[in-house]
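pasting for ref. prot 1 ->
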Amino acid sequence: MRSAGKVLSEALRSAHVDDRLVIGVYESAKIMNDDPDSVAFCVLATDGEFECDIALQIHFTLIQAFCFDNDISIVRVNNMQRLANLVGDKVKELEDAHCVLITNPTEGSWEDPALEKLHLFCEESRSLNEWVPEITLPER
């Protein structure tokens, strides 16, 4: 793919406009538990403090396992601040941006070209045994 970061940015912006974002580890876990079929894509964001936060690592492991079990594409980004900037006013505190879901409440949402490209990117990555590929978000 030409630039996975640009495509992810497009998908996040589109989902933001359509109010299809769920932000936060606990909010994401609740949606995944209540209605896993509504989840189209998962983004996990790390930062420098991630290595020291054992609780967050456990949450990420559980979220990843859930995504694998439910065929939900998942990626990591290594700049939580950039991700928070992309999802905009929906983030009340920066800590909430560790997990962002793009939901798919309607069937037509799968026709989002950026989301389709991301699903293909994740599928290709899995074929190379990279189960949770890392994407670098572009600078503005």
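and prot 2 ->
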Amino acid sequence: MRFPLKRFIHNRLITAYVILAVFTPIASMACVISTPRTLIWEVSGNGLKSPSYVFGTIHALCPEEFVVPELVKKRLQETEQLSLEVDMDAPNFMAELMQSATLPAGKTLSTMLKPEDYNLLAQHLANTMQLDLKMFDNMKPFMLQSLLLSQLTECKAVSYEQRLIEMAHAQGKEVIGVETIREQLAAMDRLPQQMQTDMLVKTVKDMSAARASYLEMVKLYLAQDLDGLTDITKEDLTPEEYTLYEETFLVARNMRWIPVIEREAKAKPTFFAVGAGHLGGEQGVLELLRRKGYTVKPILE
């Protein structure tokens, strides 16, 4: 069972980011001032010989909505390497993904979920995707969330990460990451298991609401409205859940990324592409770089 499951997951997911795209909101941390409407920023000064760039992505879009702006293509061409959140070219990428996605020995979804919730999820997967929940019984809840992505987007989603990798390879550029897949998915383990399973069941119970919320996020992203993404996130989580989410998925990771961004930008001009939710706010990547002494300015054309 393990090999077919591994192959199935590899084929279903565009990238590891898609896993988190469903489970976690895209919104950025609350901003004190209005953020200019752009998704790409230039980072210069503080000893950098050449500028680097930070681009905010959304991890899943329908093909008809997907476009790589010319200003993004131009800045990628001007740099010497591409950095995503994780290096999907790493030879151990899939092995680490599978290891991080598997429940500890002795735990299964069937024991974590209430019987009625497990049956609800099993029926949903069988009716809508012709899948047997038993084949995922040793998978962590966020893996089940990833399977629901196509039902939220109602299309075969594409990602900026995959397209940027293709462009970087065509230009002979190296692809790196600001964190490992193990570090990224470890953030999920810091959420209480009850919170994880509750969010999974909530999605299945009200797919229409989950779909509407995700499509609203897409709309705000396409409008390059980083500030506007905040409120929709808070609507989906309790204040306690949002505080935990913000600290776990945004603040802690952003702060861990900054030394890596500094190191790589000093070594060579780099095009950094990370989730748009990591850019704005007082603890966002852009402000943290400013505090380090870098000049960070929006690219509007």
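The radius of gyration is 19 Å.
Residues 44 and 51 are 5 Å apart (CA to CA).
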